[in-house]
Amino acid sequence: MEAIRLAQLKHNDKYGAVNTAAFGRAQAEQVRRFHRSFPEYSVTPLVALTNLAKSLGVRGIYVKDESKRFGLNAFKVLGGSYAIGVEVAKKLALPLEQLTYAQLTDPAVKGKLGEQTFVTATDGNHGRGVAWTANRLGQKAVVYMPKGTALERLQNIQKLGAEASITDVNYDDAVRMAQAYAEKHGGMVIQDTSWEGYEEVPLHIMQGYTTMGAELLEQLDELQVRPTHVFLQAGVGAMAGAMTGFLADYYKEERPLITIVEPLNADCIYRTAAVNDGRLHNVGGDLQSMMAGLCCGEPCSIGWQQLAAYADNFVAMPDEVAALGMRVLGNPLAGDAPIVSGESGAAGLGLAVAALREQELAWLQEALQLDTDSVIICISTEGATDVANYRKVMWEGAYSWK
Ligand SMILES: Cc1ncc(COP(=O)(O)O)c(C=O)c1O
Question: 218-223: long-range contacts (C-beta < 8 A, 24 or more apart)?
């Protein structure tokens, strides 16, 4: 197994002014109000893995289970739906603070809007959220997917009526294909990453993710739990950036230690942190990993600003660590509830468990400051979105640690 890499950063703002309020609790509550108006909305569970925590010698481990989000098996729809909502509200001059699902899906709105095409690239979950939202609005979605995408993920998007295809390029090049399509055919790009000159839609997508933060705070308050460590998995780093901004805004100086995890072969956030020279560092090529949702080689610029300022640890890790997370979540100790977690979903928990459990990673446990007082939060960002691979890991023991 290839070695785990770690980079650490201290608060820095060399990547631009950092506005955490854009992801803060007040903003998040507004976003959540919008999501609450969806018929599928319910708070996703925060599962206390009490016996796992005991066995690993920490005070607590809590996992938010996003497989339960809107029946779509991942958190991503929170971003696409909110960003599309904002775009529609802008076009029709509707007040954003009052925007609801019922309004958006009213046939009169479609009449006023006319035919729209939402265009995006995705490794699965984001495109499914965009296709689902377009479908509910009676609009068209065009979705590009990277080389090697599991057929199940493609079909889940096609089932929603989207024009979806698997390309022969990686995620970042698929993003450029989506842009080119929108320019040529007049579609609206709803992309879950930002670059110079394209920041407004991704900002709204990131704000959409903060519904998870608003729910999490409520759940932690109820349990009277204060986290010391939060593990967030990153593809382009938009979700991690939004949640980091949210946590930094709420906890201020007392924010938990935030650790970002990525696959070794798609470690653009890790590399940007390790070099820390004021620029973003990309990774090219096939970005091979079973953590498909994290196979992105170009950081989201506005997500990175939050991470550079407020995240503490940046880890690049092999697939075996995510597989460990999937197995621990799916086969819990007696008394703990099971969580079906996919390759990208289980990455954060996998790293926390590995650092606490594996003798050879004692250095990592120390570097992450994990000890008997630690209260760990992870987000299982997806369920089994590639069932064939899920079975390989869980039933056949693929990607085993040793
Ligand atoms: C399940 C899952 N987790 C995490 C992520 C990472 O999100 P981001 O690309 O914003 O870093 C993704 C992205 O697609 C995902 O699908």
Answer: 218/43, 219/43, 219/46, 219/64, 220/46, 220/62, 220/377, 223/46, 223/48, 223/62
